[in-house]
From TrEMBL:
It catalyses: L-lysyl-[alpha-tubulin] + acetyl-CoA = N(6)-acetyl-L-lysyl-[alpha-tubulin] + CoA + H(+). It comes from Amblyomma americanum (Lone star tick). This is Alpha-tubulin N-acetyltransferase. It comes from the Eukaryota. One of its GO terms (cellular component) is microtubule. Specifically acetylates 'Lys-40' in alpha-tubulin on the lumenal side of microtubules. Promotes microtubule destabilization and accelerates microtubule dynamics; this activity may be independent of acetylation activity. Acetylates alpha-tubulin with a slow enzymatic rate, due to a catalytic site that is not optimized for acetyl transfer. Enters the microtubule through each end and diffuses quickly throughout the lumen of microtubules. Its EC number is 2.3.1.108. Residues 252-279 are annotated as: Disordered. Residues 1-198 form the N-acetyltransferase domain. It is an enzyme of class 2 (transferase).
Length: 306
């Protein structure tokens, strides 16, 4: 790609650009640091002429990548790069009129939920390929392979350790042709990972048995035994005729409150029941429960003991 100005500020063959739009040699930087969200902050930069031109180069590369992949909006922009923890690799080679920009490769860490070969849901935070583009005039000439290898060497990763965001058919063909990676594992979030990704994944925040799907977790909760206050025995234990030290359920408290309101209204003569008031289930159900355990009911329940 050529621009109406020189791009001599991209002075290396493989340029690394991060927050602050500072250009570095990709062969002399370490792997990208995965900082927690609370340590990532919006960068404040001085608006120099070099940074403005560098921003134009990044935006032009992002738009070209967007058009080549048929995306609705560019993935790579100078504003997003300045305010994120991502890293941009830019491939440049010397030309007759100065340096020529050939392509870009953007990587960054993402928190993802991915399914492994056994369809188990895993939470991982791998290094992801977020954007990859080589100018159409230099495709199929080894430029993409050189750029990808430089990134992998700097980040100290292999191709199967990366997650690829919404890979195009060309990208999948590229991974198969150069790295022998075929049949990506299907994911609902449009990321692609290949065989061996989960074996080489460094981050395993929870044991494999806790990586299971949410559906199985729900079934596990449904199989748990009911607590005492939701069981038959528990519903008997909190009735008025039983030991007052037992906890009273919320539904029983509401029932008692309504009974008290009814008695107060009846004593004032402002309420006449249209039917017999509800009776506590103590006289039948609780007494029968005492019988289940082979015990006589309390004295105030003996009248209803059968």
């Amino acid at each position: 790609m050529e621009f109406p100005f020189t791009v001599d500020f991209l002075e290396f063959e493989f340029n690394v650009i991060e927050k602050g739009l500072k250009v570095q040699d990709a062969s002399k930087v370490g792997p990208l640091q995965d900082l927690p969200n609370d340590e990532q902050h919006i960068s404040v930069h001085s608006s120099s002429r070099v940074q403005e031109r560098l921003g134009l180069v990044i935006d032009a590369l992002g738009e070209a990548s967007c058009a080549a992949q048929g995306l609705p909006a560019p993935v790579t922009t100078s504003d997003r790069l300045q305010n994120s923890g991502h890293r941009l690799y830019v491939l440049v080679e010397p030309g007759v009129r100065g340096a020529i920009v050939l392509g870009l490769l953007k990587v960054g860490f993402k928190q993802l939920f991915l399914r492994d070969e056994h369809s188990r849901l895993c939470q991982v935070r791998p290094l992801c390929v977020l954007d990859f583009y080589v100018h159409h005039s230099r495709q199929r000439q080894g430029c993409g392979r050189r750029l990808f290898d430089r990134m992998a060497q700097t980040e100290k990763v292999t191709a199967n350790q990366l997650a690829i965001d919404q890979p195009s058919e060309k990208m999948l063909a590229f991974m198969e042709r150069h790295y022998g990676l075929t049949k990506p594992l299907p994911q609902s979030n449009h990321f692609a990972v290949f065989a061996g990704f989960f074996k080489s994944s460094v981050e395993q925040p929870r044991p494999p048995e806790q990586h299971i799907t949410c559906e199985k977790a729900v079934r596990t909760r449904l199989r748990r035994p009911h607590s005492y206050d939701s069981s038959l025995v528990g519903s008997c234990l909190d009735w008025p005729c039983c030991d007052g030290s037992q906890p009273v359920s919320r539904s029983r408290q509401v029932y008692r409150g309504r009974q008290a309101q009814g008695r107060a209204a009846e004593s004032r003569g402002s309420w006449t029941p249209t039917r017999e008031p509800l009776q506590p289930r103590c006289s039948s159900r609780c007494s029968s429960s005492w019988g289940i355990f082979g015990l006589p009911p309390p004295d105030h329940c003996r009248a209803s003991w059968h």
